[in-house]
Fold these 2 entries.
Entry 1:
Amino acid sequence: MIELIKNPNIDFLGKRYIAFVLSGILSILGIIAIIQIARGSANLGIDFAGGTSIQLKFEKPVVLHDIRLALEGGGLKEFDLQDLPAENKVLIRMKKTEEELGRVAESITMILSQKFSDNRYVVDSTTVIGPKVGGKLRVNAARATAVAVIGLLIYVAFRFQLRFGVGATIATFHDVLAVLGVFFIMGKEINLILVTALLTIAGYSLTDTVVVFDRIRENLKLKQREDVMAVMNRSINEVLSRTIITSTTVLLASLALFFFGGEVIHDFSLAMIMGVIVGTYSSVFVASPIVLLWGGKRPFAKK
Amino acid sequence: MKKKILWRPILIILTIVLAFIFFLPNTPVFQYMPEWWKDTMPAKGMVLGLDLQGGLHLVFEVEGDRAVEITTERYVSTIKDTLVKKKLSADVSRSGLNISINPSTPEIRKAIEDNYPTLAPVEVGGKLEYRLSDSEVKRIKDNAVDQALETIRNRIDQFGVAEPTIVRQAENEIVIQLPGVKDPKRAIELIGKTALLEFKLVDDEAQVAAQLSSVLLPGEEENFLRQFAGKIPGDDEILFERRVNRETGAVMKIPILLKKQAVLTGDLLNEAKVSIDTRFNEPYVSLSFNATGAKIFEEVTGAHVKKRLAIILDNTVYSAPVIQEKIAGGDAQITGRFTMEEAKDLSIVLRSGALPAPMKMLQNVTVGPSLGRDSIEAGKIAGIIATIAVAGFMIFYYRLSGLIADVALIFNIILLLGAMASLNATLTLPGIAGIILAIGMAVDSNVLMFERMRDELRAGKTPRAAVDSGYSKAFWTIFDSHVTTLITAAVLFQFGTGPIKGFAVTLSLGVAINLFTALVGTKTVFDIINRRSEIKKLSI
C-alpha cells in the first residue's frame, strides 16, 4: 500500500491565524479586482466590455511592431496586440466601438492585406460585441455567481448544519476571489470563459470541503466528549491523503488541458489549476476554522 | 447473492453497447456500416458547435422605433387622402412620432377619430396632435420582429446554408447561427441589408435643382446636406447617386433632388433576377412587378414622360433615367457596376422583400474553419494525455484496485460520449474542456471508496467486509460532492451562451454518469472477484 503521508498528525487548526492572514490577502486582492471590474478599469474581455477582436494566422512570422505601425498608419487608435509566435498568430483587440460595428474589423483586414501583401493570412476568428450586450453579460455573470453560491450554501446547510454551510460558502467565495485576484494582478483578461472557470471552481472546491466535513461530522457524533478542535484536527488528518489525491487527479487533467488543450482554453485551464490548489487549501484552512469559530453549542451533539 | 450480481454486468454491458451505437455516427466507422444500419440506427450523433466547425453567430436588434416612424409616415399620407375625400382642407405633417393637423376643427377631429381608431389624441403645447396608441405601437414593434425573422429566413434559404438557426430572443432581438459559412462578410451584408426599393420622381423643376449639380467625394454628403437645409421645397429631399468610374474604380456621389413620396415600392415586386448586360458584359438585376405594380408603373410613366424617375435602394439612388414613353408590362432594372455575386445577393434580398425596419448588429462571433479544426485536434490530444496521466496515477497508487478504477474510467468516457451523441448535444470547445475535467473528477469517487476501504482494512476488517463498508460509508460523501458540482453546472447552463452551455452539458453529464459507474460499475467488479472465494489480500 502506497501512502502519501503515514498517519499524519498536523495541527491544522492551530495554524488558522497564519492561514487567515494569507487568505485575507488573497480575498482582498479578489475584492479589489471586483471593484476594478465594476469601475471598468480591469482588463475586461470584449465579451464584457464590448468591442472588436480579430485573430489572424499569417503564413510567415510577423513582427508585432510592424502590425502596430501598419494599423496606426491606417488611422486606427487604441488597440491591443498580442501574438502567438509559434503559430504566426496575432490577436488584435479594440474596445468600446460604439458605432458601426463590424466596420472596425473590415478596416483592420483591409489595412493588413495592403501592408502585408507578401505575407498572406487567414482570419481565424472575429468577435464583435456591442456595448449593450457586454453590459448584459456582465450583469448575467454576476447574477449567475450569486445564484450558484446561494445554491451551494443552501445545499450544504441542508446536508450538514448552517455553520457548515456558512463555512463552505465562505471558503468557496475565498477560492473564487483568490483566483480572480491573481488573474487581475497578472493582467489576464477577465472574460466569460474565466467566469465559467470560476463557477466550476466554486463547485469543485466544495468536493474537498464535503469530504472533510463528512469526516468531521462522523467523528463528532462518535466522540461526544472529546474537545471539538481536537476532533476536527484529527478528522482533517485522517482524510488528508484523499483530499490531496482527488485534487491531484483533477489537477492532472487540468495540466493536460493547459499544456495541450490549445490557445483558446489556455487561461481557462490556468484558472482551474489555481482553483483546484486553492480549493484544497481552503477546505482545510478556511472552511474548517470557520465552523470551529462559529461558537455556540457543540455541533452534532446528542441530546 | 448470486442473482443480485448477475443483473449488474448485464446492465453495464447493455449501456456500453448502447453508447457505442449512439456514438458511431461521430466516428469514421459509420460510413462503412451497411445501409440497413444507417437507415434504422441513430445517425446524427453529437453536433459540433460553431466554435469547432466554424461559422457565424450574429445577434441583430430590430429598430422597432423606426418601424413605428415608418408606419406614422404612412398614416400621414392616408390621412391627407381621407381629408381630401371629405373635402376638408388641413395641413397634415409628421413631427417625430406625432401627427399634427392644422387647423384641428371639430369636423376634422371627428373625421380622424372615426376613421382611425388606432390613433390617440395628445396635447402638445396647447395644440392637438395624434399619435399611434400604445397597444398599436407594441403591435407594430412586435410585428416588425416577426416579419424581419421571416424575411431573414427567406434570404438565408435562398443563399443556401445547411442547418441555419434563426430565432427571436427577448423583445426585439434576432439570433442567427450559420455553421460553416465561407464568406462571412457577404452573409452579414445579405442579412443586414434593409433592401427598401423605392421609385421616386426627380424634381428638376424646383429652382434649387440647378444649384445642386455637383460631384462629391464619399464623406462630403453631410456637409452638402447642411448647406441646403431649409432651401429645398418641403415635399422634396436630397439623395445621392453613387457612380463608379469604369476605368479607375473611383466612387463619386451625385446629389439629386427628389419628391419625398415614393410612387412605387419593392413590395409590389413579382420577381427579381440577375441578367447580363451584353454591352459591357456586366450583370444587373431585372425586376418585374405584379399586376398592381405594373398598373401603377404604367400610370406613373405615362403621366411623367420626359421627366426622370429615380430607382432607390436603401436611400441610395442607383439610376435616374429619363422616361421616354409610357412603360407597360411592369419591367425595370437596377444597374450599378455590380459583380456577379453582388447582383445575385441583390436579387435575393429584393425577392425576399425589405426588412420592416433597419436592424442594428449587436454581436458577431465568426470562427474560421481552421481554428475549429486546430481546437478539436488539441482537445483530442489533451484528452488522451489527461486519461493516460490520471489512469497511470491510479495504477501507481492503488495497484490492482487502481486498474479496476481505470476500467470504470474508460467506461465513463464511453458512456459520456454515448450520452452526448444520444441527446444530439452540441460539442463546443469549453465542452471538450468539460469532458477532460470530468475525466479528472471521474476517479475521485473511486479514490474516496478506496481510501475508505483502506480505513476499514486498517481497522482489521476482512477484504470483503472492507469492500462492502467502503462502498456504503463513502456513498454519501460521493453523492454530496457530485451534487455540488451539478449545482454549479446547472447555473452555468442557465446563464451561459452557446459554448458555455456546452461546457455545462458535458460537465454535468460527466458527473452524473460518474455516479453510475462508480456505484454500479466498480462495485460489480469487486463483487465478482470476491464471489468465488474469500480473497486474502486486497491489492489497494
Entry 2:
Amino acid sequence: MDIVFKINKYSSLFKSILFVSVKNIKNFILKLAQTSAFKKLPLLVFVLITPFLFIFLLLLIQDKILYIIPPVKLNYQAEMETLLEKQKQKAVSQIIYLQQRLNAKTPGSSYLIINSSTNEFKLFSGLKEIRRGICSTGSYVQLESDNQKWLFKTPKGVLRVQGKTENPVWIKPDWAFIEEGLPVPPKGHYSRYEYGTLGDYALSLGNGYLIHGTLYKRFLGMPVTHGCVRMNDEDLEKVYKSLTIGSKVYIY
Amino acid sequence: MVSKFENTIQSNIVKYRNAIKYVTTAVIVILLMIAVLMLYAPFSNLQKFNKVYSDSTLISFDKEELLNDEKFFELKKHEAYLKSKLLVAKNDSISLSINLPDSTISIEVQGVLLHQSKLTSISNSMFFERASHLALFNYFQSPFKTNKSISNIEKEPVIYMKAPKDTVEAAKNQLIADTSLAKRVYVRIELERGLTIILTDNQSKWSRSYIYNTFSSGLLRFGLSLRDIFHFKVPSYNPVIRIKLDRNSLISIYRAIPDKAYVTIHM
C-alpha cells in the first residue's frame, strides 16, 4: 500500500515537472520566434556549412601551399661536365638494354589477350598485333540451387592452350539443366550432348574453360557466357590457326 | 509571475548569446590551430621526405650532384622505372604501370603489356615539384605495393540468381546488363610509402557515389589529420597523383589488378 502511494506521488510529481517543462519550452520557442535570433536562420545554416567548406578549402590549399617555397636550385660544378656526359651515355645504353630485356618477356610466338571487362580480344604474334575483335566472356551470374552454387566467371591471369578440337561437341554440365529449370539427367545421358553449339573450333584452357564459337552472335561484346570465351566464326578460325598447344592466353 | 518568467527568459537569452560567443570564439581558435598545423604538415613532411630518401648510397653513380642536371635526372628516372618493371615482371600477378612523362597507364603481367591507355589529365601535388631530385629518385626507384584500393564500382559485378523451378520460370530470367558502366568512375589506390593515386574517368557526368567517394576521401584525410593533432603530432600529409583516363580503360584496369597489386611509376 505504501509502495503504491509512493509510486502515485512520484508519478504526479514527474507529470507536473514534465508539464511545466513543456510549457516553458513552448513559451521559450514562442519568445525566441519573436526575437531577431530566429530571423537569423540563414546565418545558422551558414555556420553549419562553413566547417565543411573550411575543411575542403584547407585540403585544397594544403596540396598547393608548397608553391610558396622556391624550387630546389639545381647546381653542379663545371668540372663535372665530362663525367656528366659519360654518365648520360651510360644511362642511355642502360635504358636500351633494360627495354630489350623487357621486350624479351613478350612471347615470340602467337598469343591472345582477352579483356573481360570490355569483352574484346587482341591476337599478337610477338609484338605485332595481327587481329582484334569482340568476344563474350563470363556474365558474373552466381546461380544458386538448393545445395550448390556456380559463379559464371572467366578466369583471369596467364593460361595456356591445352587442347584444340574441330567440330566440338558440348557435353552439358549440371548447371546447364538447372539454369533452364530442367531435371538433371545422369552422366552420359544423350540429352547432355549438343552438336554445333560451340561452332567449328574449340581451344581448351583447362578446368572446362574453352574458347569457342557461338550461335548467339548478337550477344558478342557482352558478358553473357558461363566462363568460356565466345568468338565469331572468322575470329575463331584465325585464333585457332594462330595458336598452338602451349600458346599463352592472357585474360584480365 | 509573468514578468518574472519573462525576466528569466531574457536573462537566459543573454546567457545563451554569451555562450554562443564563447563557443564560436573557441571553435574559431581551434579551427585556426588546425588550419595552421595542417598547412604546416606539407612543409614538415617535405623536410622528412628529403631527409629519409636522400641516402646517396642507393644511387649507382658517384656524384649525386649529377642528378641536378635535368636531362640526366630524366634518364635516370626512366632507367629506374624500367628496372622496377623488370622486378615486377618476375611476379605472376597483374601489375600497374604509370608513365607520367609519356602520359600513359598500362597493366602488365610477367612483362607482357596487356592494356595501355592514354592519360587525359595529370595533376600532382606540389610536393613532388619541391622535393629534392635525389629523394625523388630514391622514392620512385622501386615498385610500390598497394595497401588499399577503394572505388565506387565493384571489383567483380556478381549478379545473384536463384535456380528456376521450371522452364516457365527460366524463360522469365532475362539478361541483366552491368550497370556500373553508366556512372562516373572513381578509384583511389593507397600505396605503401604514403603515396595515393586517384584515378577518375574523363566524363563530366556526376553521380551520387562519385560525389560520396570524393567527399569521403577528403573527410578521411581531414579525420586522420585531426587524430594526429589530438595526439600532439604534426598531421600526416600524403602526396597525391590525380589522373584522368578513358572510362572503359579505367574499369578494365581497376577490375584487372589484384588487391595487393604492384605499381611502378615513372615520375
